[in-house]
Specification:
The protein is an alpha+beta fold. 35% of the residues lie in helices and 20% in strands. The strands form 2 sheets. A 5-stranded mixed sheet has the order 2-1-3-4-7, with no helix packed on it. The chain has a two-stranded antiparallel sheet with strand order 5-6.
């Protein structure tokens, strides 16, 4: 003969609810939570420092000079108003040109233009390939 508790669905639901609450309570230990919280905070702070350093580096996003869309296969750039992409007045009049190719964008410095990173001159065209996802 089955036990009386198994016949009453309401009693079974109550018993199930109590069991779930007890399991959740056992899983939520404050001692372990304090340890995890401290390590998480340290990890987040370290990530923030690394991210800020990356953003502020010479090639970081915060040093971005501008956002220019390349609407044709070739675009000249510099501070001269007759360039396709006009840079701020502090830039050279004719820095070079961008070429859009099937492999990405190629930046070609103009004659006598010093282009590079950290005062290291580029001696050839620089190619920026599209990101691969």
């Amino acid at each position: 003969m089955p036990h009386a508790m198994t016949r009453n669905p309401r009693t079974l639901r109550r018993l199930g609810t109590v069991l779930v609450v007890l399991l959740l309570n056992a899983a939520c230990s404050t001692e372990a939570e304090d340890l995890d919280r401290a390590s998480l905070e340290a990890e987040v702070l370290a990530w923030r420092e690394t991210r800020l350093a990356s953003l502020m580096s010479p090639t970081g996003f915060l040093n971005l000079a501008g956002l220019f869309w390349l609407e044709s296969e070739t675009a000249t750039f510099g501070s001269s108003p007759d360039n396709d992409l006009v840079f701020p007045g502090s830039a050279d009049a004719r820095i070079g040109r961008f070429r859009v190719t099937a492999d990405g964008v190629v930046m070609e410095p103009g004659e006598g233009t010093v282009a590079g990173v950290d005062h290291h001159q580029a001696r050839w065209a620089l190619r920026c390939a599209p990101a691969r996802l």
